[in-house]
Design brief:
Two copies of one chain form a homodimer.
Chain A lengths: L4 H19 L4 H5 L9 H14 L1 H11 L12 H5 L5 H22 L9 E4 L3 E4 H24 L19
Antiparallel strand pairs in A: 1-2
Helix pairs in contact in A: 1-6, 1-7, 3-4, 3-6, 4-7
Amino acid sequence: MDFDITETVNILGRTPGVLNELLKEAPEELIITNGGPDTWSPFDIIGHLIHGETTDWIPRTRMILNFGESRTFEPFDRFAQYEKSRDKTINELLEEFATLRRQSLDALKEMKVSTDQLSLRGTHPSLGSVTLRELLSTWVAHDLSHIAQAVRVMCRQYADDVGPWKEFLPILSR
Amino acid sequence: MDFDITETVNILGRTPGVLNELLKEAPEELIITNGGPDTWSPFDIIGHLIHGETTDWIPRTRMILNFGESRTFEPFDRFAQYEKSRDKTINELLEEFATLRRQSLDALKEMKVSTDQLSLRGTHPSLGSVTLRELLSTWVAHDLSHIAQAVRVMCRQYADDVGPWKEFLPILSR
């Protein structure tokens, strides 16, 4: 895709609605079941997205705009949600994510990033030099990747129930 | 999952909303791009789901309830949408799907399928003997599988844009 910041905001703005429709007041078992050891449930995924809003995307965008490559991004904690989401309901997490996402996109729009600025560089703690365009594209791909992951883990709970249809549903065996 | 028809209706009822949030008035390029030869775009997928509403799930449920294994289901045409969706917009398809899904679920509720009836059998043209429970579970898994597919094909359009982050996003290489 040719990168377009208006389009980026468009797609990023959809994620809370998609996840609400998918998960709000959905059957508990579908929400809290993961796909096996070291995999995430839809509940875990929303917690992970929340953590990204507060520590990753906008803070890193600011760091690129303000400091370029001279400061390294804070490493992202991929397991923070286990502690932070505890004692919350899925509906609380969904609302929290929607609020944070709205704030993130307001902040992004406020920055009025120009096409030239998209080529500015920052320093990722393990990937090294990255551009703002790559960071913002990754934000979109990361959203979509976790929506797909949540849907997949829900789908797999039907792996046995579908009987012989399993062979027509490759998602159940991947 | 222990099969529960109320839960089945709950999940099936979510799909139009999920797809609306994901696709309604989304950037054209994201909607019509597929993932390469013999793959489907989100636009193709909605057409496929529409065809399922009119020819697959409810007609096959009725056939099991009315004729058991004595009549074989009509084979499902996996390519019907190419012809049928032509000249329609994504918004028209989304609305059509939402209406048909509402009608399908009304019809399903109307049938008041009992737990005993879930074990009734029908005949699939290639899979042979299947139960009503398997058919209804497959309906749910099929929905989720195509939501994941649509999201994945959208995500992959960012494969190059994310730069070095690609290694953290396995969805882009699968």
